[in-house]
Inverse folding.
């Protein structure tokens, strides 16, 4: 059930205006690290696959343009496309291995073919997201965020002492220490209006220290051209659906789906952290974000660029800066489009020392870890869930750091288990599936969504409660909760009261002293959410509005309410405890 807590750190909500210069600055901040990562990824995959060096510049520019267009598209909502939040679209290191394999076996044509088909599979997966509602839960998504922070942190802590720019480890320590110290000082003691600039000030301070100690590569900035379009690197247009395609497709599809699961976690999280009064998760936002991702991957395939995904750092950026304004996404995408033809600007960003970015990322990942904990707690922690979360998390950390039978896990298994994020995520999902499979089979009732179905619903719930051995007061409590849930769904759409053209499926699961009701109704894309209405009622005085009566009664009878909205489907889960 949505709570009435507030996020006091939020300076700008998604629909609030922010000064253009400030939006530009935050947009630049949000893509700075991604540009550096993109440059590194393109260099790695082109060199490792023995492609022409000219292809490196083209792949970088094409990928930057596609990611820029995708980042801008995410800000808006065109039907089922777009999230309505400042969510980036980026290329990540998760794709390095499969991209190298595709380029080595068949060049850009084979890479394009696998990207297009994988994008179609991803699109189909996202449209059926509601079928995974018992798998992709707040507990699972929160654990994924915690694993992401923990596994990447182990790498970043090693990078803090990176002196690849030519200086000493002592110099790297001074640079990283300055960056981290300035950011922590501002984060802990500066007023909110100054805290939004914490990343800028911290990175700038680190670069100032890096120049005299020889860690900032100013020479590469001076040598870079001001404007340039690398047309000589264009590899041509084509597709390859030969034997190699069918060999590589399963691996590509798995990586795409894995990246989607990580991104789903952050897309859920950003909805929680972007508003002063947190809102219930709207899975239509998740679907819209990944529908855009599917399109941008098709565009990247046609442009001979890299695969892309929704990154996992969006919510931590909002937590750190307090800026969730949509205009930041527009400016971030615009900056990527401009950078694609400005080698000088790219060199300026890629010259920033690794130690600076590592110190900056440590703060962001620390906030992301805490946000993951928050989602896990929000999902509820019973003995089974606590065990699953704890074991999955530490399995991921153990495999990431080669602490679990490193001498026995070799060959292909080493590739799978060396990634702690993947290992922990798979363990978490398998445990969750196992729990769902061992639960008593749900009993179902299918009726029309209208007030005339109330007698059937009432009779069905009475039978469920009697079978569970509940006494009469408990039976009445369950029946009342079911009645008010039905009434609340109809209250959200008053013209549906007697129309009866929407289907409603009610399923129940009995627990220890509780019964869980799940109402699945075909949706007409209404924006209002029951969880948000119940949280809102907690902050408002009693009123005589008949439309609010069902919401107040539902809050009284139910111990928890979750309302998940997907395109074409509404899922309301109500838990009722037996009367004492």
């Amino acid at each position: 059930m949505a709570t009435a807590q507030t996020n006091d750190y939020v300076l700008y909500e998604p629909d609030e205006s922010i000064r253009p210069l400030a939006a530009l600055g935050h947009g630049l901040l949000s893509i700075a690290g991604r540009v550096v990562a993109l440059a590194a990824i393109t260099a790695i995959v082109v060199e490792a696959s023995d492609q022409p060096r000219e292809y490196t510049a083209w792949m970088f520019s094409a990928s930057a343009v596609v990611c820029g267009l995708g980042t801008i598209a995410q800000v808006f909502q065109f039907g089922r496309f777009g999230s309505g939040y400042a969510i980036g679209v980026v290329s990540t290191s998760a794709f390095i291995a499969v991209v190298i394999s595709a380029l080595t076996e068949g060049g850009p044509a084979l890479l394009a073919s696998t990207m297009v088909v994988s994008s179609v599979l991803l699109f189909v997966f996202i449209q059926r997201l509601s079928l995974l509602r018992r798998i992709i839960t707040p507990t699972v998504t929160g654990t994924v965020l915690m694993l992401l922070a923990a596994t990447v942190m182990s790498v970043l802590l090693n990078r803090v002492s990176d002196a690849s720019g030519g200086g000493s480890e002592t110099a790297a320590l001074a640079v990283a220490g300055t960056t981290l110290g300035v950011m922590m000082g501002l984060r802990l003691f500066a007023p909110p209006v100054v805290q939004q600039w914490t990343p800028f000030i911290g990175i700038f301070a680190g670069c100032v220290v890096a120049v005299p100690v020889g860690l900032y590569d100013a020479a590469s900035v001076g040598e870079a051209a001001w404007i340039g379009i690398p047309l000589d690197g264009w590899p041509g247009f084509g597709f390859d659906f030969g034997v190699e395609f069918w060999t590589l497709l399963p691996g590509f599809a798995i990586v795409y789906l894995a990246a989607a699961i990580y991104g789903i976690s952050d897309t859920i999280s950003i909805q929680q952290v972007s508003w002063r009064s947190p809102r219930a998760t709207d899975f239509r936002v998740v679907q819209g974000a990944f529908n855009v991702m599917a399109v941008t991957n098709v565009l990247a395939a046609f442009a001979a660029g890299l695969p892309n995904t929704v990154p996992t750092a969006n919510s931590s950026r909002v937590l750190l800066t307090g800026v969730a304004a949509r205009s930041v996404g527009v400016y971030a995408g615009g900056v990527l489009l401009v950078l694609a033809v400005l080698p000088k600007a790219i060199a300026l960003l890629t010259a920033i020392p690794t130690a600076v970015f590592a110190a900056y990322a440590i703060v962001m990942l620390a906030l992301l870890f805490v946000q993951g904990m928050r989602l896990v707690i929000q999902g509820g922690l019973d003995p089974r869930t606590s065990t699953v979360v704890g074991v999955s998390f530490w399995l991921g950390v153990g495999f990431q750091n080669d602490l679990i039978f490193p001498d026995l896990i070799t060959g292909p298994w080493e590739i799978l288990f060396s990634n702690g994020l993947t290992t922990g995520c798979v363990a978490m999902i398998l445990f969750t599936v196992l729990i769902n499979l061992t639960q008593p089979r749900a009993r179902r009732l299918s009726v029309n969504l209208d007030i005339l179905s109330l007698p059937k619903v009432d009779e069905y719930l009475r039978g469920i409660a009697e079978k569970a051995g509940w006494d009469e007061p408990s039976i009445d409590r369950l029946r009342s909760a079911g009645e008010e849930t039905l009434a609340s769904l109809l209250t959200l759409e008053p013209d549906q009261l007697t129309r009866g053209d929407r289907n409603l499926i009610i399923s129940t699961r009995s627990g220890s002293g509780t019964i869980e009701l799940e109402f699945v109704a075909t949706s007409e894309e209404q924006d209002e959410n029951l969880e948000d209405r119940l949280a809102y009622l907690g902050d408002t005085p009693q009123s005589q509005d008949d439309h609010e009566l069902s919401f107040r009664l539902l809050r009284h009878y139910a111990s928890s309410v979750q309302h998940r909205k997907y395109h074409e489907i509404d899922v309301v889960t109500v838990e009722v405890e037996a009367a004492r």
About this structure: The CA atoms of residues 271 and 560 lie 20 Å apart.
